[in-house]
């Protein structure tokens, strides 16, 4: 990691020459946050609708996973390209295109008459989301480039949306599926997109853009193949096992393509991902922290959902409602840390503290059992985890885009989403595999009663506890990494940033 400060940055205070504050910047933040909410919601809202959609459209269980995987592959593999295109051709242009395309794809999915149409719509959602997400985050970065305090508040709000959107998706998916139709889990995007689209035309515009340069084709191809290989292989791990060629082969191929990508980026004149963006200590620490939180957070969203539904007997709506306190604490943690603490302390004390709180919450979850109640066994853990994730996502997203030149803000923002996406893929694969292994081990140790329902329940709970302990250890590791890598003191502010003027 580069330990020095980048040219054109001042640490902890607005740089000279930044110009006047952007008019209507807080309304612009609402517009950008709505778009981010739509993208994050779709990572979980469709999961709730899938069983009903499968029954309605009559596709197989094997095909069902592709409704989720298709979105993840398209989104994750095209993020760097989307971030670079927003730098080249304009953040607002890519934002509007991504917003409109995402809405059309959602309408197509909601009207799907079969599996093929639903899958195509999900892949299209992922592709347009890869344009939309980095453009939105980079516009937050350049809109609030000149004032460290305002930037902290803005990223606190945006980070809260990013951290809480998955849980909101569970709640909204449960409500829509239960009271209307699974199709409304896709149609709801039309409402959000319409509001954000109208707001973008009025309140968003691009700042100064660099001259267009040749696209790094070789870097684009190797980046896409690398991310697709890793995400596809990890997606097969839960069903096929870690030793199956359909898991190992794609993952190894993906890693090779990533290595080739890095080697190419060191040589080309106009790289898809300028390596200084990635190798700065603060930004590198932010990407790692967000990725680790993406892995660890999956333990909550996946296995606690199973516990609430299967052990406590919660309906989809009640399951989603159960996560609301966590959502509230994510928002409180992100906004308070971003607006009040980060401008004074920088991310170094905040992100490790967030990881430690998340680790504590995961450890508390290992105490849940068949006789536990939501209020006594689950809620305290959710509150602690929510506060911890808020301390990670708010300061982390701010740090991930601080100090970059304006024409690199899109690709820096794309790396945030890639870290979350890859983290989620790893979390799904690793925790699903660990859970299955733990269940098998428990039943082998209790072979005499393995067929009894009570033993199966105990084996399932044992697997949940094992996963939560692993997630707690992961967050502890994240705290150590963040404490070692982040610089002390407030974040740098880009000196040559040109404000985005709303009109």
Task: Report on the architecture of this protein.
It is a single chain. The chain is an all-alpha fold. The protein has two domains: 9-207 and 272-494, MFS general substrate transporter like domains (Growth Hormone, Chain: A), CATH 1.20.1250.20; 217-271. The chain contains 17 helices and two strands. Helix 2 packs across helix 3 (61-89), helix 4 packs antiparallel against helix 7 and helix 11 (281-311) runs antiparallel to helix 17 (453-485). It is globular and about 65 Å long. The two termini are 39 Å apart. The model is unreliable at 1-19 and 495-503 (pLDDT under 50).
What topology does this entry show?
Blueprint: E1 9-11, H1 25-41, H2 45-57, H3 61-89, H4 91-110, H5 115-143, H6 148-179, H7 184-203, H8 217-240, H9 245-265, H10 275-279, H11 281-311, H12 316-322, H13 324-345, H14 350-365, H15 374-401, H16 409-445, H17 453-485, E2 492-494
Helix pairs in contact: 1-5, 1-6, 1-7, 2-3, 2-6, 3-4, 3-5, 3-8, 3-16, 4-5, 4-7, 5-16, 6-12, 6-13, 6-15, 8-9, 8-16, 11-15, 11-16, 11-17, 13-15, 14-15, 14-17, 16-17
Features:
503 residues, Growth Hormone, Chain: A, disordered C terminus, 2 domains, mainly alpha, disordered N terminus, globular
What is the fold-level CATH name, i.e. the topology of the largest domain? Growth Hormone, Chain: A
Helix content: over 70%
Tally of discrete structural domains: 2
**Beta-sheet strand percentage?**
under 5%
The span between the termini is 39 Å
Number of beta strands: 2
Tell me the Rg in angstroms.
Answer: 22 Å
Largest sheet: 2 strands, antiparallel
3D shape = globular
Q: In CATH, what is the class of the largest domain?
A: Mainly Alpha
Count of alpha and pi helical runs: 17
CATH superfamily of the largest domain: MFS general substrate transporter like domains
Order of helices and strands: EHHHHHHHHHHHHHHHHHE
**If you average the pLDDT, what whole number results?**
81
CATH architecture of the largest domain: Up-down Bundle
Biggest sheet: strand arrangement: 1-2
| Unreliable spans | 1-19, 495-503
Structural class: mainly alpha
